[in-house]
Amino acid sequence: MSALQQILSALAERPGVAGAMLLSDEGLPVAATLPEGVDVEAVAAHAATVWRGLATLGGATGTGSPEEIVTEAPGGIMILRRLGPGTTIFVLADGDAPDVGALLHDLRRHASVLLASA
């Protein structure tokens, strides 16, 4: 198992985290540990589209491109975090994840390690 796959697996083993994926700006999955039945390619494509749309919105509003996007839905929480040029991490968490704040902090803190492993 690659270092990147090990990091994603460790992330997915956190309480309340269902899975994680690294994706390119083109919407291609780089590595993933998403739950069985989740279409990895579709998630990567849609996540990249959302990222581009919000970057465009940020330009139109003058706020700039997002660094992190957190979306709550009835079935869980979706997080997109920019790691560096061309690379974004997607994390899928349960709606009742114990500490989303700590998860967000760790994603920010370890972004360079994730990017270096990509």
What can you see in these coordinates?
The chain has one domain (about 5-115): Dynein light chain 2a, cytoplasmic (Beta-Lactamase, 2-Layer Sandwich), CATH 3.30.450. The chain is globular. It has a five-stranded antiparallel beta sheet, with helices on both faces. Helices cover about 40% and strands about 30% of the residues. The protein has four helices and five strands. The longest helix has 22 residues, at about 40-60. The two termini are about 15 Å apart. The protein has helices spanning about 5-10, 40-60, 100-110, 110-115; strands spanning about 15-25, 30-35, 70-75, 75-85, 85-95. A hairpin with a 2-residue loop joins strand 3 and strand 4 (about 75-85). It has about 120 residues and is an alpha+beta fold.
N-to-C terminal Cα separation, in Å? 13 Å
The helix/strand series, from N terminus to C terminus, equals HEEHEEEHH
Secondary-structure content class: alpha+beta
Q: What overall form do the CA principal axes indicate? A: globular
Q: In the CATH hierarchy, what is the superfamily?
A: Dynein light chain 2a, cytoplasmic
Strand order of the largest sheet: 2-1-5-4-3
Number of strands: 5
Please tell me the overall pLDDT. 90
What amount of the residues lies in strands? 25-35%
Low-confidence stretches: none
Looking at the overall shape, the CATH architecture is 2-Layer Sandwich
Number of separate structural domains: 1
Q: The CATH topology is what?
A: Beta-Lactamase
Reported for the largest beta sheet, the result is: 5 strands, antiparallel
Number of helices: 4
Cα radius of gyration in angstroms: 13 Å
